[in-house]
Amino acid sequence: MQVKHKDGEFFIEVKGKKALLDYTISGKKMDLFHTFTDEELRGQGLAEKLAQAAFEYAKKNGLRIVPTCEYIRDTFLKKHPEWEEITEHW
Predict the structure, then answer these.
(1) CA dihedral sign of residues 66, 72, 73, 78
(2) What topology does CATH give the domain 4-86?
(3) Which active-site residues does the annotation give?
(4) Helical (H) or strand (E) element with 52
(5) Does pTM surpass 0.90?
(6) pLDDT tens per residue across all 90 residues of the chain
(7) Cβ neighbours of residue 69 under 8 Å, at least 6 residues apart?
């Protein structure tokens, strides 16, 4: 399953169902504010794949992550401390 990217959203689509991660960019900060995975797609690690893609995008583009989304803050970053260096703490 391939992560796709359009302005403001990383997403994975499977048989018309979607998992997505929404963000905004302000200056040099990328606010990851919302993840959603369609009920039929849950439990496959899609949110983690989306978060990984977003962090890689931020690093490549010199952005710092603002982890407004509860999943990013409370789950993804705890499993992936390697991303702490580009994460804003608040």
Answers:
(1) negative
(2) Aminopeptidase (3.40.630)
(3) 69
(4) helix 46-60
(5) yes
(6) 899 999 999 999 999 999 999 999 999 999 999 999 999 999 999 999 999 999 999 999 999 999 999 999 999 999 999 999 999 986
(7) 21, 32, 33, 34, 35
